[in-house]
Amino acid sequence: MILAGKIGLVFGVANKRSIAWAIAQAWKEAGATLAFTYQGERVRENVEELVETFGPDTLLLPCDVTRDEEIDRVFAEVGQRHGKLHLLLHSVAYAPREALEGEFVKTSREAFRVAHDVSAYSLVALARAAAPLMTEGGSIIAMSYYGAAKVIPHYNVMGVAKASLEASARYLAYDLGTKKIRVNCISAGPVNTLAARGIVGFNTMLKRYEKHSPLQRNLLPEELGATGVFLACDGAGAITGQTIYVDCGYEIMAM
Ligand SMILES: NC(=O)c1ccc[n+]([C@@H]2O[C@H](COP(=O)([O-])OP(=O)(O)OC[C@H]3O[C@@H](n4cnc5c(N)ncnc54)[C@H](O)[C@@H]3O)[C@@H](O)[C@H]2O)c1
What we know:
binds nicotinamide-adenine-dinucleotide
C-alpha cells in the first residue's frame, strides 16, 4: 500500500483497454484514492461502469481537455471533495484521422492545431490547475510514444505533438520543482487500445516490437501500471522531467 493516503486524478479512461485504466487499477491496488474524468457522452456509460468498481462515492466528471471551463470545474470539484491532490495522470491524445494517414508533409494547419491542443497543451493546462491542490507535493505523469524522438511511419503529427508533450513535461518539471511537484512521461511501446487502432499499420508495429526489441515481446498493460506506481511513489522522489521508456527495450535498438 505504497500510495496509501494519496489522492489521484485520472484523465483518459475510455474503456477497459485504456492505458489510463491499467494505471488507475495499479494506483488503487497501491492504496490511492482516485477521481476520474471522461471525455464526453460517447464514452460516459463505459467509464461509469468501470469506475463503479472503485466504489459508489468515486468522483467521475466530464472533461474535454480543450475546454478551460470544464478543466476549472473538475479541479474545483476535486478540491471540494478531497481538499488536496497528489497524483495526476494525463493519458489523453487525439489527431484527426486524415492526419494519421499518408504523408506528414500534407498535415493541415487545423489538424496540427487540434493534435497539439488535445495531446500536448492539455498537459500544461492540467498541471496549472492541479498545482494549487498539490500542497504536499505531487507526481504528474503523461503518456508518450517513441514517435516523439524518431520517425514512425503514419504516426505523423502525433509524433510531433508527443515531442511537444515531452518538452512541456520538462518545462513544467522546472517550474513546479520548488513545490515538490514532479512531472514525467512514460513512453509506452504499442498497446492494443482504441486510440492505437486509429494508427495505420498498428499490427505491424506490434509484430516489429516482438521481433526486434531486446525482450522479444510486447509490453503488458500491468507493466505500465507498475511504472505508474513507481513514478507516483516517494521512492521516485528525485526523478522529474524524464521520459521513461516502457517498451521492452525497443528504444535502444538501431538495427
Ligand atoms: N496504445 C498505445 O500503443 C500507446 C503507446 C504509447 C502512448 N500511448 C498514449 O497513451 C495515451 C492513452 O491512449 P490509449 O492507447 O490508452 O487509448 P484510449 O483511446 O483508451 O485513450 C485515449 C483517451 O484520450 C481521450 N481523449 C481524446 N480527446 C480528448 C479530449 N479532447 N478531452 C478529453 N479526453 C480526450 C479519450 O476519451 C480516451 O479516453 C495517449 O496519450 C496515447 O497517445 C498509447
